[in-house]
Amino acid sequence: MRSFFVTVIVACFLVGLSWADEAIQSVQREDRRIATIRKLCEKKSYAEAEPLALALAGELADTNKAGAPAAQNRNHWAVAVWLGRIYQAQRQIVQAETWFKRAVTSAEAVFGSEHANTSLSVDELAGFYQSQGRPVEAEPLYQRAITIRSKEYGATNPKTAESIAGLARLYKSQGRYDAALPLYRRAYELRLGELGSTHPDTLTSMTELADLLRAHRQYPEAEKLIRRALAQRETSLGPTHPDTLTSLSALAALYLETNRIPDAERILKRILATRETSLGKSHWETRASLNELIRFYLDQGRESEAQPYMQRAQEAIRVESAKRKAAAATLAPPQTFSASPQQQK
């Protein structure tokens, strides 16, 4: 009898081990599928990623209905995060909101309300609401994300700075410049201290702070920051990189606002020349630079100097139109003609 009980206990133990091993393998398979979804999203292949993510979400939901603890599976949260991003990228707003909110709920259930992953989903939902012009819903979410991240990562961590910068952008979009300015300063100082002066996030904060300082007409400090960002971007990214040209555009705008007309003209011409060389004369960004230079000369009452750029803009439009027609012609199916019954006779 004793040996019988021992056999039963051993059998139960082995069954338990087998079940645990299967559960581990199942989670590993889910991890691999989520890694595939992530890679597709990184390549912006959202249409390809969507059915994979939906299939995994459905399987996790079915597992949950069957009684397994899928709601406590981190992949239940991860797939909701990716579906929110996929639908936002595809501008399917209702679906994006549904999955972003589901990601917050899942993170709270899986990790707890004060966990770092919960703060990530809260921050993403805030950013989604901000992008949809819903600041009333976004503001408390940004504030909550800052609180969680300050506790989880520390008050000076770049993740905390990320949420602070998000709230600053929200206030700026509402015209609440006095509330936005100290947040922009704080985000910049945190990133400068933790990441260094050459990090892309630091340069972004530097540029955003300079832009708001311009709005406050604090031109000397704004110019200093713009020039610093420009120098770093020219060194690390090169003179033709879009971020470098963004800094140049900001400097030109500051010169216009401070009536330094020759300096503004020189920079606008430099931006145009760079885009013509790197992008081509008919590219839409090059045409935008042409229009900025035309507007500059017209605002200065220098119509004769604007004329050559107007002609170049018209030629660029003509060339781009011809390119599109040629591309459309190559994509059009060949026309086939069949004889009418009368012609066949």
Written account of the structure:
The chain is mostly helical and 345 residues long. It has a domain at 284-321. Helix content is 82%, strand content 0%. It has 15 helices and no strands. The protein has helices spanning 2-42, 46-65, 74-89, 93-110, 116-131, 135-152, 158-173, 177-195, 200-215, 219-236, 242-257, 261-279, 284-299, 303-331, 341-344. The longest helix has 41 residues, at 2-42.
Give a nutshell description of this structure.
By secondary structure, the chain is mainly alpha-helical. The chain has 15 helices and no strands.
Total strand segments: 0
Report how far apart the termini are: 99 Å
Structural class comes to mainly alpha
**What is the overall shape?**
globular
**Mean pLDDT level:** 87
Share of helical residues: over 70%
Low-confidence stretches: 10-20
Radius of gyration: 28 Å
Largest sheet descriptor: none
Q: Order of helices and strands, N to C?
A: HHHHHHHHHHHHHHH
Number of helices: 15
**Strand residue percentage:** under 5%
Sequence-ordered SSE layout with sheet pairings:
Blueprint: H1 2-42, H2 46-65, H3 74-89, H4 93-110, H5 116-131, H6 135-152, H7 158-173, H8 177-195, H9 200-215, H10 219-236, H11 242-257, H12 261-279, H13 284-299, H14 303-331, H15 341-344
Helix pairs in contact: 1-2, 1-3, 2-3, 3-4, 4-5, 5-6, 6-7, 7-8, 8-9, 9-10, 10-11, 11-12, 12-13, 13-14
Looking at this protein, list some descriptive labels.
single chain, 345 residues, mainly alpha, 15 helices, 82% helix, globular
